[in-house]
Design the sequence.
């Protein structure tokens, strides 16, 4: 985050380093486990490497395509670009590309593996529901993700889960077609079905560990972005108003639309869900409770009021 005026967050930096370190250990154990399960090490390296490179360099394109978003020019969205220009000037940071997704789900996200590839995107539903200051507050939240570089970390951290999930499904299908009977292959090694089941086991463990690590980072980074946006704009109550509007309107969005957007919850400003609070364990939530976010913004409002 060096070079910007977003408020530094040592806690976020420490968590990103810890998450990447732990994921690296999981990554090594994952490869060793697959090799011990009988897979060719070069095949493992090619599969993991290919997924890693693809998800890293194409992360912005994948997210934009999946959300049906398009990049817009200042001529196509002058008001949106004006808000981003103003915030980038305030934060003293480079301006990312700007996109709009034609979706009634009120939300925003930032993606990209580097500063040059960064994109900040809002949905048409968000722009219809928020006034200018509220939209600016949400954009500040998303810009802080780029400035903090946690978007890049989330992109890198997520690829192991993608690989593990893919191999789990492939192993299950292979085992189903090969049969689950024990025994050995013609050359004296483990039977193909046994190898497939071992791959499933190793991949599933790696997927669960990476999933929990990424979700824990995701929850903290949302609180960090709220803080950074509130201090940059000096209007935490406006961000709180936007958050209340967005989460309140989620219940009015068709379930089908919410389900289509849910895979990107970890990157959204607010989760695409009509459920209130935590209907599932806090360990698997992408965002902290709305009440916790609003309470933090209220505390910042009091701090800024006392300091004025």
Sequence:
């Amino acid at each position: 985050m060096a070079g910007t005026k977003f408020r530094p967050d040592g806690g976020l930096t420490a968590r990103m380093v810890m998450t990447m370190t732990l994921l690296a250990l999981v990554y090594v154990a994952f490869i060793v486990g697959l090799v011990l399960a009988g897979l060719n090490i070069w095949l493992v390296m090619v599969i993991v490497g290919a997924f890693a490179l693809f998800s890293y360099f194409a992360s912005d394109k994948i997210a934009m395509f999946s959300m049906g978003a398009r990049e817009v020019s200042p001529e196509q969205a002058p008001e949106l670009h004006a808000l981003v220009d103003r915030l980038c000037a305030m934060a003293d940071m480079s301006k990312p590309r700007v996109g709009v997704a034609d979706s009634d789900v009120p939300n925003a996200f930032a993606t990209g593996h580097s500063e040059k590839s960064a994109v900040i995107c809002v949905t048409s539903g968000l722009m219809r529901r928020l006034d200018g200051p509220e939209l600016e507050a949400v954009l500040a939240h998303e810009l802080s993700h780029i400035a903090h570089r946690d978007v890049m970390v989330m992109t890198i951290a997520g690829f192991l889960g993608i690989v593990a999930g893919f191999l789990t499904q492939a192993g299950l299908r292979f085992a189903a077609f090969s049969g689950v009977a024990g025994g050995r292959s013609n050359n004296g090694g483990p039977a193909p079905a046994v190898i497939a089941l071992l791959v499933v086991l190793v991949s599933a463990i790696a997927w669960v560990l990476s999933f929990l690590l990424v979700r824990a980072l995701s929850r903290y980074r949302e609180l960090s972005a709220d803080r950074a946006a509130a201090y940059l704009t000096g209007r935490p109550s406006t961000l709180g108003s936007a958050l209340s509007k967005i989460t309140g309107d989620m219940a009015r969005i068709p379930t089908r639309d919410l389900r289509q957007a849910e895979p990107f919850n970890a990157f959204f400003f607010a989760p695409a869900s009509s459920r209130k609070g935590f209907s599932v364990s806090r360990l698997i939530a992408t965002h902290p409770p709305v009440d916790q976010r609003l309470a933090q913004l209220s505390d910042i409002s009091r701090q800024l009021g006392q300091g004025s």
Q: What stands out?
A: The chain has a mean pLDDT of 82. The first strand starts at residue 69 and ends at 71. The radius of gyration is 22 Å.
